[in-house]
């Protein structure tokens, strides 16, 4: 009888702790900063988030790593072995979530059924995380009671592209054909690389953006592996279809990297995940995590796991907590984003992100992390763009950006007209400079396919072209030498 009482008392204490956790999360991350009505249905009562093992969340070097990460790291020779036991959760997330009544989204998809009135979960095994959609607070209580000791639960939150940039004397001039002359300065080394046959062949590049128009003339003859990640969690799993882009931003970014005539590295193997809404240019962390998991699964396929890889993203969140978000919740978000990107870096994937378009002294994450290459923008004369972000992120020990690329009046693919004719435009932004740098990195990875992510990172910084003045440009302009 005494042991039964202790068990009941322990269970009550766990539930009380869970209620306290949930209250703290809701206070820290009000509904507008989770998966809110403005992002989903106005009548929506659920919210979503990510479960990730605490050892992984905190960056413990002995944390269990996903099989996809281990496969790529083993091939690249960068797998870390401390000799200590691997730290793995005592419970697997999926069985525990099913036990408390949530539906497995993959099973629903296979059976072509729905789960009205019930929450759902999707295993993001390649990233070592699980996406969860709660239909009510009781489900959340039960999940945190069951898994709270081993897993960190991070409520969903908004991410977005840097604000669009319009400059006096510079506009989105439109064209119907590729340029008759190369737009990349001779100092960039792009022309030299192409003359040597170094065009990015054998390099995997993932772009997380608004999508890509796979039928634009710049991608003629190229197979683009494409995934559309739905905004609405109940529409998951995502769809693997022919690439489309109702905004044009992702097509512009992809053209800078891989366009046949405007691209820096036209022979790369392009993987595009549409994770940003064209109307709002917003997304959510869960949606991005779903995209990253898809990227890792593609990159760790047997035919790809040996290939060097790049990740390009033009999204993030501000350097200070948004209004109504506590410091604790904001730090939790930073830790989650860092841990997910660290997974890719461990798998020999170099991540590049835009530093932001808010000018001097302003920057965004994840570009502000010390272990992510944050990219600023210069014009074709090497002068820093007025909008290009910069700063000294606290506790990172670095100054940002790490380096810069060309991001003013950049000409690239955008869309097609109703007759199917290609349309090109000139855009400005660190979102344009970032794919330029990703393209330069792809040229290096093409020439040195056996070099690690660390070595490519250092090569970019060491070979960067210094600028005058040097303020806000990091190590300088990325170039191929």
Question: What attributes does this structure have?
Answer:
five-stranded mixed sheet; 12 helices; 481 residues; alpha/beta; Rossmann fold; seven-stranded parallel sheet; 2 domains; globular
> Roughly how many Å apart are the termini?
77 Å
Strand arrangement across the biggest beta sheet: 9-10-8-12-13-14-15
Could you give the count of β-strands?
A: 17
CATH-defined architecture of the largest domain: 3-Layer(aba) Sandwich
SSE pattern: HEHHHEHEEHEEEHEEHEEHEHEEEEEHH
Instruction: Give start-end ranges of low-pLDDT stretches.
Output: 1-15, 23-45
Number of helices: 12
Mean pLDDT: 87
What is the general shape?
globular
Helix content: 25-40%
What structural category arises from helix and sheet content? alpha/beta
Q: Quick one: CATH superfamily of the largest domain?
A: Peptidase S8/S53 domain
How many structural domains are formed by the residues?
A: 2
If you consult CATH, what is the topology of the largest domain?
Rossmann fold
Percent of sequence in beta strands: 15-25%
Rg: 23 Å
Reading off the top of the CATH hierarchy, the class of the largest domain is best stated as Alpha Beta
Largest sheet: 7 strands, parallel
How would you summarize the topology of this molecule?
Elements: H1 2-28, E1 47-53, H2 54-57, H3 67-76, H4 93-99, E2 103-104, H5 105-111, E3 120-124, E4 129-134, H6 137-147, E5 151-155, E6 158-160, E7 174-175, H7 190-195, E8 204-209, E9 225-228, H8 249-258, E10 269-274, E11 282-284, H9 285-299, E12 309-313, H10 327-346, E13 349-354, E14 373-378, E15 403-406, E16 410-416, E17 422-427, H11 430-447, H12 453-463
Parallel strand pairs: 2-3, 8-10, 8-12, 9-10, 12-13, 13-14, 14-15
Antiparallel strand pairs: 1-4, 1-5, 3-4, 6-11, 7-17, 16-17
Helix pairs in contact: 1-6, 8-11, 11-12
């Amino acid at each position: 009888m005494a042991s039964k009482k202790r068990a009941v008392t322990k269970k009550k204490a766990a539930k009380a702790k869970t209620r306290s956790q949930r209250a703290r999360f809701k206070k820290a991350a009000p509904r507008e900063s989770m998966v809110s009505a403005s992002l989903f249905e106005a009548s929506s009562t659920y919210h979503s988030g990510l479960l990730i093992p605490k050892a992984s969340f905190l960056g413990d070097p002995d944390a269990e790593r996903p099989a996809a990460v281990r496969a790529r790291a083993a091939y690249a020779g960068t797998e870390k072995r401390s000799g200590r036991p691997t730290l793995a959760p005592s419970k697997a997330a999926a069985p525990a979530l099913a036990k408390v009544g949530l539906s497995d989204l993959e099973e629903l998809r296979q059976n072509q059924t729905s789960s009205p009135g019930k929450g759902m979960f999707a295993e993001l095994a390649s990233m070592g995380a699980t996406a969860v959609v709660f239909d009510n607070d009781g489900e959340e209580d039960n999940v945190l009671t069951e898994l709270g000791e081993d897993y960190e639960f991070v409520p969903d939150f908004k991410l977005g592209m840097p604000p669009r940039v319009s400059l006096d004397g510079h506009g989105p001039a439109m064209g119907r054909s590729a340029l008759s002359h190369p737009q990349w300065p001779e100092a960039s080394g792009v022309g030299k690389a192409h003359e040597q046959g170094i065009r990015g062949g054998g390099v995997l590049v993932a772009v997380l953006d608004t999508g890509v128009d796979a039928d634009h003339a710049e991608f003629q003859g190229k197979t683009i592996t494409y995934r559309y990640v739905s905004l609405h969690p109940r529409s998951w799993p995502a769809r693997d279809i022919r690439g489309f882009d109702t905004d044009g931003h992702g097509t512009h970014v992809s053209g800078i990297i891989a366009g046949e005539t405007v691209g820096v590295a036209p022979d790369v193997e392009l993987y595009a995940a549409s994770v940003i809404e064209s109307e709002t240019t917003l997304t959510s962390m869960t949606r991005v995590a779903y995209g990253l998991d898809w990227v890792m699964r593609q990159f760790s396929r047997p035919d790809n796991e040996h290939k060097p890889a790049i990740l390009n993203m033009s999204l993030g969140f501000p350097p200070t907590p948004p209004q109504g978000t506590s410091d604790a919740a904001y730090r939790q978000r930073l830790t989650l984003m860092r841990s997910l990107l660290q997974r890719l870096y461990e798998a020999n994937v170099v991540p590049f992100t835009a530093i932001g378009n808010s000018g001097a002294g302003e920057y965004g994450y994840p570009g502000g992390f010390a272990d992510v290459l944050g990219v600023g923008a210069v014009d074709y004369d090497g002068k820093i763009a007025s909008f290009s972000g910069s700063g000294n992120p606290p506790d990172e020990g670095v100054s940002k950006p790490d380096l810069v690329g060309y991001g003013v009046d950049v000409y690239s693919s955008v869309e097609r007209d109703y007759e199917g004719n290609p349309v090109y435009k000139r855009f400005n932004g660190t979102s344009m400079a970032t794919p330029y740098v990703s393209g330069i990195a792809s040229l290096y990875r093409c020439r040195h396919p056996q070099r690690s992510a660390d070595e490519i990172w250092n090569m970019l910084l060491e070979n960067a072209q210094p600028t005058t003045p040097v303020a806000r440009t990091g190590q300088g302009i990325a170039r191929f030498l």
